[in-house]
Structure prediction request, 473 residues.
Amino acid sequence: MAAVEEESPLQEIESLCMRCGENGITRLLLTRIPHFREVVLMAFECPHCHERNNEVQFAGQLQPQGCCHTLTVLKGDTKVLSRQVVKSDSATVQIPELEFEVPPEAQRGTLSTVEGVLLRAAEEIGALQEERKKVDPSKAEALDNFLVKLRSCAAGESTFTFIISDPAGNSFIENPHAPAPDPLLSVKFYDRSKEEQEALGFLVDSGGEESQIDRTSEEKHKYIPAGTQKLPHGTVGASLAHRAIAQGTSEDVAATLFKYSAPEEVMTFPSTCSSCAARCETRMYAINIPYFKEMIVMASICDMCGYRNSELKPGGSIPAKGKKVSVKIFSAKDLCRDVIKSDTSTVSIPEVELDLAPGTLGGLVTTVEGLIQQILERLKGMNEFVLGDSADTEGKERWKDFQLKMEKLLRVEQPWTLILEDPLANSFIAPITDTFEDDSQLHIEEFERTWQQNEDLGLNDMDTSSADVAYDK
Prediction:
């Protein structure tokens, strides 16, 4: 486990034992895990029946989006089974091959390993097998067969998929290859549905109908094998293609974009806070960035909970081709170039073997220097186990070496290359000259999107025939 720093003294309270009904003792300790979050460690002990258990609860704020970690465990690979797992009290664990699911109510707030989660689930299922055999022998026999398969997965005797989905965004699976991508582990972020907001304790406005493109919690976390997804026409492309979240305050976004032109008109309309569901106002304006395209800037502030959000949406139609923008960094002056990175863009720096998948940072309006700093902060947050006292020496050294390389990039000790590859052509790096043609360090290439890229963006299922008929008329 990562090293913890004590935040408050240990507290003891009396609580009821769920096993014997007598009073037991619960000990609470508020701690902070470096590079992770504030947590509350809870340990219960009953002096009468000697029942003992522990739990981890998150004391900090919820994350802006939910997260879904998918880990492929190969047969005979025992190292993958030893990866540490943080499961919050709102997370669900799934193993599609066994049609098995650990609901949020089970194993609440645990810090374990993949093997530990499976063995604990098998232990809890088998605890009442003797009673089941007396009441329902057929059901008990089916569970015995299932437990054999589950323990086989825990022992690494079969290949399976380990999925942990958390609408609160506080669950985690260790990546031993950090900061490099893990071929066995994929992480996706998603917006919480109204049902998930309500389950997390937020006020949800039940007056209006849900949008047709909102997926239910069951659909969102359901495992669907690759190549078998079937979605209605037009339900994916419109929502994914024009979505770029700017991770900064509205003042930061405005200060950057106002370098190009000021908005002609700022429109204000009522909206709902995505954090607490209270009524708030959203301001929107369109701005034209030279050599790029028209962009729509939206900013909202909630007076009830203080939540602030800025969104940068591309204007116009979806381009026919993607764009690859690369710039060669030679001096500190190049670090001040403005950068617009959409959430569909990948970030690559060949000199440090860095390759970030889409969605890792979301959408950003920043500079080259700010982008590098946010990459470091994001990777620290996603790979906190590499920095803890339980990490192996090889992992610590690999992370230190990567951090030193990133710091050298900020000092520009040697030339390096920043590459943004966006299949929707919504990313941009500003030139340091008056025109793109005069900037020899900046290169832009167009490329044809692959079928898989169109599938990920929902463009293969997009049906515009009805709109085409209207335009033809």
